[in-house]
Design a protein that fits this description.
This protein is mostly helical and about 130 residues long. Helices cover about 65% and strands about 10% of the residues.
Amino acid sequence: MSNYKKALTDAQREMAEIETKIADLKSRHAQLETTIAGLKGLMGEPQEETDITFSASIRTILMSSVYKDRFINVAEIANNLRILRPQKPVNLASVRTILNRLVQSEEAKQGEAKDGTVGYSWNRSQRTLSDLR
């Protein structure tokens, strides 16, 4: 029995390590999506029309902020939305509504941004963006 228990403990530990690595990679992927969209915009390259939803765009931005390990405020999120979705208008009230919903569902965390305003960050213990797509 003790061999089974040790095997189970080892497997559970390894699973936890892998889940952390996956979350880190998905966070980096989200950051790179934002970076690539921003660089294309600066270079004047056409941006691909995306079918990503408004909520998924906000999730992507929050996941990229996890990589930086900080909370980002609504203005930063709106600026990133303009980069990710340049063809679409950004309504700050809608952004706040989605952020509040994400906090209530524990997908996001609320804290203080570096400028002292309310900020948001992805809750690493929650699902990843690909789980939500």
